[in-house]
Amino acid sequence: MSELERPAAAEAVFGARVEPAERFVRLLAEHGVRRGLIGPREVERLWDRHVLNSAVIAEVVPAGATVVDVGSGAGLPGIPLAIARPDLRVTLVEPMARRVAWLDEVVETLALSSVTVLRGRAEEPGVRSRVSGADVVTARAVAPLAKLAGWCLPLLRRGGRMVAVKGASAAEEVDRDRVEVAAVGGGEPVVEICGATVLDLPTTVVLIERVQSTGGQAWRTRKDQGAHRG
Question: CATH says 55-225 is which class?
Answer without folding.
Answer: alpha beta
